[in-house]
Design brief:
Layout lengths: L10 E2 L5 H16 L8 H12 L6 H17 L3 E2 L8 H4 L3
Antiparallel strand pairs: 1-2
Length: about 100
């Protein structure tokens, strides 16, 4: 039996190229859209409410980004990423 070690390059959000940062942001917004309403921040709830009141729920993610840009970026800065903007976890490396 052999044991093999694999080294991954991981990046902080601020080290990513713009396209990878955008991918991380979109993933974060999807995460928030799948979060129960009562667990969202007040500003995110306002954005979701706006989308619903305008009968355009498909724009909820855009309203969240417009209203909560700093909050989303701060959320993204908590993680490490692969070069393409996917959150790094060793478990996911074998899934691709």
């Amino acid at each position: 039996m052999q044991k093999v070690s694999i080294t991954y390059s991981v990046y902080a959000y601020d080290e990513l190229f713009e396209a990878a940062q955008n991918r991380a942001i979109q993933s974060a917004i999807k995460c928030f859209l799948n979060t129960p309403y009562e667990r969202l921040s007040e500003d995110m709830q306002i954005a979701v409410d706006k989308a619903e009141s305008m009968q355009t729920p498909w724009f909820a993610g855009e309203y969240i980004w417009d209203n909560c840009r700093d909050e989303i970026i701060a959320f993204c800065q908590q993680f490490e990423y692969r070069f393409n903007g996917n959150v790094f976890t060793e478990e996911n490396e074998n899934a691709c």
